[in-house]
Write a structure and sequence with these properties.
Helix content: 10-25%
CATH topology of the largest domain: FAD/NAD(P)-binding domain
Strand content: 25-35%
Structural class: alpha+beta
Largest sheet: 6 strands, mixed
Order of helices and strands: EHEEHHEEHEEEEEEHEEEHHEEHE
Shape: globular
Radius of gyration: 22 Å
CATH superfamily of the largest domain: FAD/NAD(P)-binding domain
Number of strands: 17
């Protein structure tokens, strides 16, 4: 099998998000020759949605990954621009550390760790097929490598798939959609078909992201400030990794009656309520449409304005993901106090 493989590794990891980076580092540290394949080396650990780590339930996972030798916790500590302890009014068992990280600095920090890790190689390519021997029916099916879009083959004793949203991904804005792994990046094709040929059942999950607005266009001075209150708390258990950088504030606004009415009037234009899309989404991250429909009795919902980095002009509008058409999104944003004159840099 080595004869037709461009290279051979003990482990191949497909995907360069949080999970892929941790898997590749763990395998390499165990002494396995490891390759991490990703569609774009510059977008490793990019945090395309909200560049935040931790929060309820998730902070416990970050602590556990750190205890197992992972790096997400120490990187989040090093590149946090705001830290808060959630559920602090309750017992310590449910305290949840949450860090807003600097998106660019976090990604560069992870890329540096990967590049410096012995036994680990990085490859930019789209993996489209799995090399196998035997058969599932015969009980001897075995994966021994991957094939890329342009036909190169790479051998491996084990293949780890951490592909995230990219497998035949599509993005929807209103009633329009396009193939994409995430905004501005191509979807991964081929690998879904390969998995189905192996007898695996595939499904589609839905997630959402809010618009980004230009920080200088928002009247932050008129909004409630939310400063960091946990800069001296850390995800990592290693005191040598306890680093705190500059901290900046997030801000809070709220939806208004005008927000709710605009959403109700245009629900039929969203992918879910308009019937264009039928998919399951995470309970913990509802769209603003879902909030208005499910909690019709509520007059207002809290919205958090979170910087994406120390030097980034973008604010992430936490709690305001939407499927409304782009033409309506700016109008919707401008119903929020402080955002009456905001500039939308990227639609939800």
């Amino acid at each position: 099998m080595d004869n037709f493989c461009s290279e051979r590794f003990d482990v191949i990891v497909v995907g360069g998000g949080h999970a892929g980076c941790e898997a590749a580092l763990a395998a390499a540290r165990l002494g396995c020759s490891t390759a991490l394949f990703t569609l774009n080396l510059d977008r490793i650990a990019w945090q395309p949605c909200n560049p935040a780590v931790g929060g309820p339930a998730k902070s416990q996972l970050v602590h556990e990954v750190d205890a197992l030798g992972g790096v997400i916790g120490r990187l989040a500590d090093a590149h946090a621009i705001q830290k808060r302890m959630l559920n602090a009014s309750r017992g310590p068992a449910v305290w949840a550390l949450r860090a807003q990280t600097d998106k660019r600095r976090y990604a560069l920090g992870m890329q540096r760790l990967l590049q410096e890790q012995p036994n680990l190689s990085l490859r930019e390519a789209m993996v489209t097929d799995l090399l196998t021997t035997g058969s599932r029916g015969g009980g001897n099916l075995r994966i021994h490598g991957v094939e890329t879009y342009f036909g190169s083959r790479y051998g491996a004793e084990a293949v780890v798939l951490t592909t995230g949203t990219f497998l035949q991904g599509r993005i929807w804005i209103g009633g329009r959609s396009q193939s994409a792994g995430r905004a501005g990046e191509a979807a991964a094709t081929g690998l879904t078909d390969a998995l189905q040929r192996l007898g695996l059942e595939m499904g589609r999950l839905k997630t959402g992201t809010p618009a980004r607005v230009e920080r200088s266009s928002v009247a932050l001075e008129d909004l409630e400030e939310q400063p960091s209150d946990a800069a001296d708390r850390y995800f990592s258990f290693d005191p040598e990794a306890w680093i705190s950088g500059p901290q900046i504030s997030c801000h809070i606004t709220r939806t208004t009656a005008a927000t709710h009415q605009l959403i109700r009037d245009n629900l039929h234009l969203t992918p879910i309520y308009g019937g264009f899309l039928d998919a399951k989404g995470p309970r913990y991250c509802p769209s603003i449409e879902d909030k208005i429909v499910r909690f019709a009795e509520k007059e207002s919902h809290q919205i958090f304005l979170e910087p994406e980095g120390l030097d980034s002009p973008e604010l992430y509008i936490q709690g305001f993901s939407t499927g409304l058409p782009e033409a309506l999104q700016l109008q919707l944003l401008r119903t929020l106090p402080g955002l009456e004159h905001c500039v939308m840099l990227r639609p939800a």
